[in-house]
Design goal:
Length: about 140
């Protein structure tokens, strides 16, 4: 797994307004005050989308860069719309296919994140060949 997920939160009107410009398909949406699966309440309205589902970290990095270029071209800046945006990058590590993983963003790419007002988070999820084989059956 090499995923990049975009999560945006803020006022309903701002979310509706920016949906047409963001170059992704939003898979999940919620309203402020709705219950989460764990029973807690959402403090803000929001939406999330898979930006990248890549076969390796190199491809993930390239596709994230393409997403950023599209956002820059459309002059997207989430804070200007009172929105908070985060790109969460996750990897599975520990099996024979991908024992370790990492991404390298250039200073130019990091500036593009800042120009769009997108926060970054990274997570690694442990797996193994044994666990993958159990999941396949």
């Amino acid at each position: 797994m090499n995923l990049a997920m975009l999560r945006i939160e803020g006022p309903d009107s701002a979310l509706v307004a920016i949906t047409k410009d963001v170059p992704v398909v939003f898979e999940s949406k919620w309203k402020k005050g709705e219950s989460r699966r764990n029973g807690e309440i959402y403090e803000a309205s929001g939406m999330s989308a898979t930006v990248v589902d890549a076969k390796n970290p190199k491809e993930l990095t390239e596709l994230v860069r393409g997403f950023l270029v599209k956002c820059i071209d459309k002059k997207i800046n989430f804070p200007n719309h009172n929105l908070v945006a985060e790109l969460s990058i996750g990897f599975t590590v520990g099996d024979s296919v991908q024992f370790a993983a990492g991404v390298d963003f250039s200073s130019e790419e990091l500036s593009m994140f800042a120009d769009c007002g997108i926060d970054l988070s990274f997570a690694a999820y442990p797996t193994s060949d044994e666990a993958n084989n159990k999941n396949a059956t």
